[in-house]
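fyi for ur records
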Amino acid sequence: MRTIWHSITVLAEILVVVLCLSYACQSAWSDDAVDRLSVPGPINFDGTSYQLTWSSHPSAYYYKQEYLPAGQTSEHFQRMVLLEAIVQGTDVSGAVSAQINMLDRRKPTDPTVHFATYKNPKTGEMILDFIVSKESEKEELTVEWNAYRYAPLKAKDGKLGVLLFGLSRRAYGADSTEFLRGLKSARITEVNALAHYPLPVVQPKN
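which gave:
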């Protein structure tokens, strides 16, 4: 799986799920491309069409789906859209704080880590914009920029949770330097587009 980063009582268990290092989670959680959020795709974002390519339902309260443009694969992609739902056990501020804590703990071993947060006081939504990197066994550097939009989610039973709608962009090897340079201006445009995008209406199902 896919992005370098992704979201103990029930709350702590859910936060571990949301924020686990996704490379380590792929084989254990992969359910291929079963739509469990009633959003089968395609998702059209910023002029690109994204098809559902992978999903997971690792706990009763957590759903995750990933969407890619045609011709890209989960093992080596440049652009991705993510959709996640936690149907109980946390709220927007709790999910964002847990993600930031994980990023802070990563800083000593990942010099590229950088993040910023944006809050919409009218809706209670937050956006977390962050960069991480990882070296492969072949010592090829993968750099990843993500922007996660967190919104309150009310489940059918009235319990509160969190909806995450996210963007992920990647560059590999020699392309990483130019990718990071371009992010200085590109990230502002993409975060703004993410903030104004109509959120998908999710209906979690087993």
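The helical segments are 10-19, 22-29, 92-106, 176-196. thats all i got for now
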